[in-house]
Amino acid sequence: MSRARIWTAALLIIVAWAAAVALAGDDAEDQGEPRAGRPSPVAVTPDGGTAPVVRQNPLAVSIPAGGPPLDLELRRPPRAGLLFDVGTGEVLWALHPRRTAPIASLTKMMTALLIAERHKARERVLITAQATGYSGSGIGLLPEGRRVPLGPLLYGLMLVSGNDAAIALAQHDAGGQAAFVVRMNARARRLGLECSRFSSPSGILDRGNWSCPLDLATLARLDLAKTWIRRIVATRRARFRFPVRGGVLDLFNINPFISRGDKAVTGVKTGLTSAAGRCYVITARIGGRHLGVVLLDSPDPLNQVPRLLQAGARLG
């Protein structure tokens, strides 16, 4: 056999061996095992720790096999609700946890997650006529035709529930609201949010826009796992230099539990439309635990949220 043929045969053997190794590596990853020599990816938990990334969303909440440990009846109950442990994701109490319903501005929890994952605070965002022509709640001072820093817009999205900020951020990220909504729904599918569907970046449109307590609790954990969002949703008041008259933009959190100064509360978002009713996702550190409450269409959230948090804290 000539030397050229020997080298060709050796090369074919090496290529076949490399292909076999690659296929074996792909099989290992399909089984949830990391490839040799590659560090296992991790996700930051809402409490600042880490959790291994597996095929399923590691921050998804879960109902215990025997059912939630807390049996509690609420007078004038919400349409659906949930009490969960923010740190572990365990569901502690549930009322129709998979029931879908309109969610109003709780939608902005997904908008904030996408923006925080894909952008930086110092980016400049163009304020369009669509953004200043918003309806519903808003920052209300955005200068049309100017470019403004992204950071204050994200604060405005979550503190004052700015629909104008939602439009501006969606346009900045995807070129338009419709394209951004496509990204929202694609991200929801990848996260395993099985009962969520979005039709706008703000939640102002009830039609085609819904979720359920299980998905919203998972989304709360995902938001709180992002340091940027976690800092925002716990903020009572924020002030920024901004291209408006006076040069200063003041933003106040409309979450009633934070606006009244409850330091135990860590977030996250409220929402209200005529179709959705009062929607709350509230998290708080109480009794040595980090707990979260989801209420959809609640007739009495200001009493139901504290009652559920206290009941969860008593579980120890």
Characterise this structure.
This protein folds into two domains: 1-30; 80-313, DD-peptidase/beta-lactamase superfamily (Beta-lactamase), CATH 3.40.710.10. The chain is 37% helix and 20% strand. The chain is built from ten helices and 13 strands. The chain has helices spanning 3-30, 108-118, 129-132, 150-159, 163-174, 177-190, 213-225, 227-233, 256-259, 301-313, and strands at 42-44, 50-52, 80-85, 91-95, 101-102, 124-126, 147-149, 210-211, 237-241, 248-252, 265-273, 277-286, 289-296. The strands form five sheets. A five-stranded antiparallel sheet has the order 4-3-13-12-11, with helices on both faces. Strand 1 and strand 2 (50-52) form a beta hairpin. Helix 2 packs parallel to helix 7 (213-225). The N and C termini lie far apart (77 Å). The model is unreliable at 11-42 (pLDDT under 50).
